[in-house]
Design a protein that fits this description.
3 domains, 8 strands, 3-stranded antiparallel sheet, 10% strand, hpI Integrase, Chain A, mainly alpha
Length: 425
């Protein structure tokens, strides 16, 4: 029900539009001013008509240009984000509210300027922006914050609340391109050797990760039916994900091109066969307690493994063996570096990694491709070095003449041969 209040020579009409994430009531308001010469009865009739029309418009999704950012963002979550975004992205956006709403939430959508958003973005790159570490936020996190604000404004443009998106004029702080830490070939060999004494489940997991470059969620989403045992091929068809609301759940792959099939060497397939036999024995052992999800990597009772389990196990493993710990994702970078180092072209590398576009691969691994370009230039330079002096052919060895068991005529004949061939007698 709309409420009407007289303020001077105009009327304020307010309509309740529910409550936001903090339980605060969201109000839409408008101001109506009667035309000169209207009687009291006419004014009363018209203001009530305006109130009814405004309430109906609010119920149909009318947006006042005076709406606050937080109020509209909550509507964006309900109307756009929830039905369209992946669950993991939606959850991440929800978490970003805690930093964005205090900075921009109280401001009117139509009054927020590029300078104000730029100031907010710049504040995220200063020391202390990360409350937990006291350091600036990671560049990826800053991008996520700006992306959230920009997505809300893009929706507001489509809904007619604002005329343009101020985020389009904002510049992100210069990215700090930290070198990705990956194992050297010698470290990989030692890592694999150390794995030989570990549980078969984790031996299989990390061998697969090294040989495939699969994402963690893709590995944990693998099912036994995804393995073509005859042709040594494994196919990625789904991922395993987690959100606080849903727990562990099966999801689609990150992109359409992330659905791919790769061929594996015999050493990996043998590990998988041994692991399958071990899992079958375990299923038989616990009987009715086993829950059949057909997953490769599971908990003790067959339920999908937690996403954090491989990370936690690897961290403890590295600490126990005094081995460098670079996280889980570095194995994907390691696999990529091996492909690029072997001279595999960017399009093929992109396909192996399941990137939606080749440009993604080139942007993420530009430094590795640059190193390969240097090698390529050197190879061409070596092949086209026409100015190098011709190599001097080796001289034929001097013939050796001995006089043992030779008569005088043989010795004279040998002297003549030496003279004719240019060798000294």
């Amino acid at each position: 029900m709309a409420t009407i209040k007289k303020r001077g020579d105009s009327y304020s009409i307010r309509v309740s539009c529910g409550y936001n994430s903090k339980g605060k009531q969201m109000i839409q308001s408008m101001t109506w001013k009667p035309e000169e010469g209207m009687t009291t009865k006419q004014i009363e009739k018209e203001v009530n008509r305006q109130a009814v029309m405004f309430e109906e418009a609010c119920n149909k999704g009318y947006q006042s240009k005076a709406i606050k950012f937080e109020v509209f963002a909550e509507q964006w979550f309900e109307e756009y984000a929830k039905p369209n975004l992946r669950n993991t992205t939606y959850e991440r956006m929800l978490q970003l509210r805690g930093r964005i709403y205090p900075a921009l939430g109280h401001m009117r959508m139509d009054k927020i300027t590029p300078r104000q958003i730029q100031a907010f973005v710049n504040s995220l790159s200063r020391e202390g922006a990360n409350e937990r570490t006291g350091k600036p936020l990671a560049p990826k996190t800053i991008r996520h914050n700006l992306s959230f604000v920009s997505d809300v404004f893009s929706y507001a443009v489509r809904m007619g609340v604002v005329s343009d998106n101020p985020c389009s004029k904002v510049t992100l702080p210069k990215d700090r391109h930290d070198e990705k830490k990956i194992y050297t070939p010698e470290q990989v060999q030692r890592f694999l050797n150390l794995l030989n004494d570990e549980p078969l489940k984790y031996r299989t997991f990390f061998n697969l990760m090294i040989y495939s470059g699969f994402r963690r969620g893709e590995l944990l989403g693998l099912e036994w039916k995804d393995i073509d045992w005859d042709n040594y091929v494994i196919s990625v068809r789904r991922t395993s994900n987690y959100t606080a609301e849903k727990g562990i759940y099966t999801d689609t792959t990150k992109t359409k091109k992330s659905q791919r099939s790769l061929k594996f060497p015999m050493v990996v397939m043998n590990l998988l066969r041994a692991f399958k036999a071990e899992q079958d024995e375990e299923r038989e052992r616990i009987g009715d307690k086993w829950q059949d999800y057909d997953r490769l990597f599971v908990k003790w009772d067959g339920r999908p493994m937690n996403l954090q389990s491989p990370y936690g196990w690897l961290k403890e493993f590295c600490e126990e063996h005094n081995f460098p710990f670079y996280g889980i994702h570095q194995f994907r970078h390691l696999h990529t570096s091996l492909l690029i180092g072997a001279g595999i072209d960017p399009t093929t590398v992109s396909g192996v990694l399941g990137h939606a576009q080749v440009s993604t691969t080139l942007n993420l691994y530009s430094h590795m491709f640059r190193e390969n370009q240097v090698k390529a230039c050197n190879a061409v330079a070596n092949a086209l070095s026409f100015n190098k002096p011709e190599p001097t052919p080796p001289k034929d060895p001097e013939p050796t003449v001995t006089t043992d068991n030779c008569n005088e005529s043989d010795i004279n004949r040998a002297k003549i041969i030496c003279i004719k061939t240019g060798y000294g007698a």
